[in-house]
Write a structure and sequence with these properties.
Number of domains: 3
Helix content: 25-40%
Order of helices and strands: EHEEHEHEEHHEEHHHHHEEHHHHHHHH
Shape: extended
Distance between the termini: 69 Å
Strand content: 5-15%
Amino acid sequence: MVLRVRPVRFVLRHASTSGPFRPGGKSFLRRRFQLLSLLALPDGRDCILEPLSLPEGAGHSGAPEGSPSVPCIFCEEHFPTAQQDPLLKHMIIEHKLVIADVRLVADFRRYVLYWRRRFREQPVTDFCSVIRINSTAPLEEQDSYFLLCDVLPEDRVLREELQAQRLAGGAALAPCALPGLSGHLLLLAERNLEQQQRERNDNSFHGVCMFCNEEFLGNRSVLLNHMAREHAFNIGLPDNIVNCGEFLSTLQRKLDNLQCLYCERTFRDRSLLRDHMRKKQHRRINPRNREYDQFYVINYLELGKSWEEVQSEDDRELLEHQEEDWSDWEERPVSAVCLFCEKQAETTEQLCAHMEEAHGFDLLKTKAELGLNFYEQVKLVNFIRRQVHQGRCYGCCARFPSRADLGAHLAEANHAALLPDRRTWDQPEYYFPTYENDGLLCTLSDSEGDLSAPGQSRGVTVIGEDTSQLQALRQSSVLNRLLPRGWEG
């Protein structure tokens, strides 16, 4: 299949399609458009393939020692399993291959190994769509990319098989070639739906609250709703959970081992663990722990929709049923990360003081001198985040291989305070955050008190109309000459 794309504008309605399968539907075109917008960059090395996240302290960062590597689908290059971006960039730049919706692949390594074997058996064009960019340019300037996505039935079945194997605990399953839901995923879905129905109707459940040791008899929903309302510990609505007893036992086992459920750190005694979970607001489960996938029905029914999304929906539904009592509201501190290093602070003042002292960049002073409103602050922060992420000094445009090298250069040359011309960063593209969990954006302010530098206020003074002599104003109004005679106001 060939999709012709203009260098700047994507004219999807003029695309010609051919090949092993013919796509259709809005979701396919939306996915294609997103991938084309990524491929339209003149230099693929500056592209950001997936949403970025700043460090939050939960889970472990980096690949553990001895972890298996992932080979490139086409060549002998190997990359750490825990780091997909370098491999995806390599395949785009060196081999022109784009994998659609890679975050929905349950086992990325096995997915890559499967297609590595298949591409050696048959040409890549038997499986992938061909995306042709710069189609109006001379032939030597044209380029083609290959799109591998789940519109291909074989790819769809593979993704569902990997999902089924993960939910089954990683056991190898026999090959399956059923269209739509694979046989194994369908079997797991049916089995777990039956189990969930039994649990919903079971009134002989007996459980103990993990936080106050209160016993509950009857339906499982009584215990789950108690922990959500009384202890702010919500693992989801009962109707979305399967094998609830095993789920609660897993969580209780972690607590018995003095392990925090969110960051998974281990503590010396129970009192330290309890204080840590309360103060750090860690009364929730680790969203990166795939062990919990098997306990949410959605993972068996809808490929790609995680239990985290279901839990956020459950949170909204629980709040709708709760009384609006804010007496026990406790403000949760927002942890913001420095623009130039990984230093975290819970207040804007602490973070700004650190950036001024360590990097020579005064955010509040810059804001006051330039008279930045809220949206301009957002664009400036996102611009700096993008440059630092790409290892580029915005003061001299030099590139560096690592953040440490960039930080050393900024400190030595004092380029952190050397902002480029306003037209460089005051662009609509920087409305979108570089990091989707950037807490610094939540602390930005647009109050006059923060913009109190002399002569910097850009507001317009509005003087109210004097209405004390309303009759005189009515008689002298210009409207008297415009309105027909006999009109009364």
